[in-house]
Amino acid sequence: MTNESAEHILSYGKLVTVWVTLLVLTAATIMVTRVELGVWKVWAALAIASIKSGLVIAFFMHMKYEPRLFRIILFVALFTLAGFIGGTFFDVLYR
Amino acid sequence: MSQETATAEGGFWSDSGKTGIGSWIFSTDHKRIGLMYLYCVLSFFMVGVLLGVLIRLELIAPGPTIVTAQTYNALFTVHGVVMIFLFIIPGIPASFGNLVLPIQLGARDVAFPRVNLFSWWLYVIGAVIVLVSLFTGGGAPDTGWTFYVPFSARTTTNVSLAVFGVFILGFSSILTGINFVTTIHRMRAPGMNWTRIPLFTWSLYATAWVQILATPIIAITLLLVVTERVLGLGLFDPSRGGDPIMFQHMFWIYSHPAVYIMILPGMGVISDIIPVFSRKPIFGYKMIAFSSLAIAAAGSAVWGHHMYTSGMSDLGVMVFSFLTFLVAIPSAIKVFNWVSTMYKGSISLEAPMLFALSFILLFSIGGLSGLILGAASTDIHVHDTHFVVGHFHYVMFGGTGFAFFAAAHYWLPKYFGRRYEEKPAIIGWVLMFIGFNVLYFTMQVLGMEGMPRRYYDYLPEFARLNFVATVGSWIMVAGILIVLWNLWRGLLKGEPFTGNPWGGASLEWSIPTPPPTENFEEDPVVTHGPYDFKGAGVP
């Protein structure tokens, strides 16, 4: 497993590209707050945040190159988190 | 792996001749860490029992009796915090899990022994902070163990320090969970496939996932309470745009799954004990194993049933009520399978089995009374009454507490190399069982009659049953003291406990007593299931 990970040392170019994308998305998060989107404002912020965390997890945390078991474990965690957020929002939306 | 009687050599107790406190508090041996957890959780259990007795003494008669109203508020808050965060949550997983899990898998230790030690240290640090919070600042918290806003954000008592202590305890729990998941995935002995893992370890696997996934939510929630108190952010304050119900969501997103952190390991203990004392392989092994995962999964989606009267949306109430009923299915699978295991078995009523049998009855009563609370229509009538207090004590103490004592009587002789006396253990169990029901069944009746929980005083018509409940607490505590005294005396000075007297077929019964430092003299190869008594060669 260690060898498998070691084979995928990311190039500086790729790392910088991901970093710049994260900066752009951060700017997008701020800009979204200035647009009147109503209830969709929260969803937009959550969507951008999800893409950003996805990039960090995939490249900076190397998950794209890890074995399948690790990706399943990550999926379980994300699914659970989505369930927690979904259940809470479900109440707020229909209150 | 030959059967040896290594009591004289002391097994892991001698640990290459190392002695003194340093050989314990800096040890990375999972057995020593398990025992240190055990001593800590038992100490806090006794503190919790004392506080519980004081609560019951205050309620023995209407009006002020032994403490003031403010002290009473602190008593039930600290009783809850100590029992939940310092006893029940780490109780079985961190103590018996550490003692037993690696051996049941055929491993020499957990995957991350140093992280394991670190987790114990975090537990101790968190516990000390919680204890310090009782005597410093504005005094012991008076919010109830749930720390509900807006009161917790405004009270002058020492809530900030107490929740910070709980925050640290959460990290201890997460680290134990990560360690157990990794150990089960990576450290199994050759031949130990997933369907040969003992059901206690299976239950710890499901528990560990809940610890990892749900505990961070309580950590951030409690930090938000601190920021609310210190910085006045208004996150939960409606006058500043906050939402107090959001706190309840976030609190219960952890604290309901935490109920399964508490009960699942108890169910695992029972699943290991029932076949051994029935001399029969477990009935429905796979269903019990998978029902642990199903309970962990379904139990993580039902937190809203604590909030039916909070002002949550009606649709939310209906959905959470429906989901709550789903949890009953895997829970019932376990109960039916335990009973089926005993059917036509050669049942031996020794102390571990008696505690296990009482678990089944008490947990079932707790579970069925839970259905009354899970149904929104009936919950509204008994919400925040003593019915709820009786219900969760049936599940938490009648379930997890009795399973804890079952585990103590079943496994501790293996680790100490000495055994307790059977007669006092049974006398203690009888008193605990009778006292328990007198105390908590009476509470449920009081709740049905309308007595609210957490109230300092009550109407005269509740006086008789409150007196009965308090007498029940004395009987139960007498039983607990006899059981603990008998265990303490027996494990230190009792008859030698050698070989495999219970006739267990899982790996911990195939190694010397007490276990050696690295558990196995040579790496085991597993050739039979954990309940295959013929395969293990035990009669």
From TrEMBL, chain A:
InterPro entries: Caa3_sub_IV, Cyt_c_oxidase_su4_prok. GO terms for cellular component: plasma membrane. It is found in: Cell membrane. Keywords: Cell membrane, Membrane, Transmembrane, Transmembrane helix. It is a multi-pass membrane protein. It comes from the Bacteria. Its main location: membrane. The chain crosses the membrane at residues 12-32, 38-60, 72-94. NCBIfam families: caa3_sub_IV. This is Cytochrome-c oxidase.
